[in-house]
Design goal:
This is Trefoil factor 2. By secondary structure, this protein is α+β, with helices and mostly antiparallel strands. The protein is built from 3 helices and 6 strands, in the order ααβββαβββ.
C-alpha cells in the first residue's frame, strides 16, 4: 500500500476513534464511590483528571498506591411501570390480555380508557 494511503487511513481512524470517545457519558458521583482497594485501573500513568473523565472514568488522586483513574461502578437501574397514564408507550394491541401483555415483559393496567393498557416499563436510576 502507498504511504499516502496509509497516512490518510490512519488520520481517518484517529478522527473516528476520538469522536467515539467523546460520546462517553460522565460517571455519576455514586458510580465513583468505591473503596480504594476495589478500584480497577482505567487510564495510563500520569493521566490527567480531564483526560480520565473524558474517557468515561472516575478520578481521585487522594489515596496513594492505588489507581487514580478507575472504572466506575455500573449504574443501578430498575424497571417501573409509569404512573402517568399519558406517558405510556404501547406494547400490545387492542384486546390483549393481562397474561399476554406480561408474557411480553410489559406492564398492564386496564384503566383509564383512551390510553394503552399494555405498555412498556420505564428504566429509572436508583440512588447510591
Amino acid at each position: 500500500m502507498d504511504l499516502r494511503v496509509i497516512c490518510a487511513l490512519s488520520a481517518i481512524l484517529v478522527v473516528a476513534l476520538s469522536s467515539v470517545a467523546e460520546g462517553k457519558t460522565l460517571p455519576t458521583r455514586c458510580q465513583c464511590k468505591l473503596a480504594p482497594r476495589e478500584r480497577r485501573n482505567c487510564g495510563y500513568p500520569g493521566i490527567s483528571a480531564a483526560a480520565c473523565k473524558k474517557a468515561g472514568c472516575c478520578f481521585n488522586a487522594s489515596v496513594p498506591g492505588v489507581p487514580w483513574c478507575f472504572a466506575p461502578k455500573p449504574k443501578r437501574v430498575r424497571k417501573v411501570c409509569p404512573n402517568d397514564s399519558y406517558a405510556r408507550i404501547n406494547c400490545g394491541f387492542p384486546g390483549i390480555t393481562a397474561k399476554d401483555c406480561e408474557r411480553r415483559g410489559c406492564c398492564f393496567r386496564a384503566h383509564p380508557a383512551g390510553v394503552p393498557w399494555c405498555f412498556y416499563h420505564r428504566t429509572v436510576e436508583e440512588g447510591c
